[in-house]
Amino acid sequence: MKTVVYPGSFDPVTLGHLDVIERASAVFGHVVVTVMINSTKTPMFTPEERVALLKEATGHLDNVTIDFHKGLLTDYLRERNLNILVKGLRVISDFEAEFQMASVNRKLLANLETVFIMTKTEYMYLSSSIVKEVAQYGGDISNFVTQGVQKAIERKVGGL
C-alpha cells in the first residue's frame, strides 16, 4: 500500500482539489494532503484554517490525512521517508509549471516520483484564486467549493 503526498497551498480547497484527492485515494493506499506555504501568494486563510477546512472536506475518506509543512517539500518527504507526489493538472500551462517543479524536486530528492492526475473536465477552469476573486465581488461560489468552505469564505469577505 503506497503512501503519496498531495501538496498545495489549498487557499481555499476547491472541488477540483477534492476531485484529485478522491481519485488519488482510490488508487493509493494512503494520501497525505499537505498544506504548504507559497511565498508568491497572499493567503486568505491561515495554515491552521486550511488544515481544518481540508479535514472537514475529506472526512469521508478513511485513507486521507491532512498535514502542514513550512519549508521545502523535499525536506518534508525525506523526513517521512516518502517518495511519491501526486499533482493535479487542469490545463497545459499547469503541466509546464508542474513538470519544471517535478524536475527540480527530483534533483533535490533523487528517488522522487511525481504522478499527475488530470482533473475532471468540469473543474478545468477552477482555481483557488478564481474562487477568492468571485467571492470578493459577491459572486456565487457554491459550484466551486464545499458548503463548509463557502461559509468560511463568506465570513472572511464580510458575510456575503
Give keywords:
single chain; 160 residues; alpha/beta; Rossmann fold; three-stranded parallel beta sheet; two-stranded parallel sheet; 6 helices; 5 strands; globular
Highest CATH level, the class: Alpha Beta
Note the gap between the termini. 44 Å
| Tally of DSSP β-strands | 5
Going across the major beta sheet, what is the strand order? 1-2-3
Helix content: 40-55%
Question: How many separate domains?
Answer: 1
Rg from Cα: 15 Å
Detail the poorly predicted runs. none
How would you sum up the major sheet? 3 strands, parallel
Mean pLDDT across residues: 94
The quaternary organization reads as single chain
User: Count of helices?
Assistant: 6
CATH superfamily: HUPs
CATH topology: Rossmann fold
Keywords: ATP-binding, Coenzyme A biosynthesis, Cytoplasm, Magnesium, Nucleotide-binding, Nucleotidyltransferase, Transferase
Binding site for substrate: 9, 41, 73, 87
Cofactor: Mg(2+)
Function: Reversibly transfers an adenylyl group from ATP to 4'-phosphopantetheine, yielding dephospho-CoA (dPCoA) and pyrophosphate.
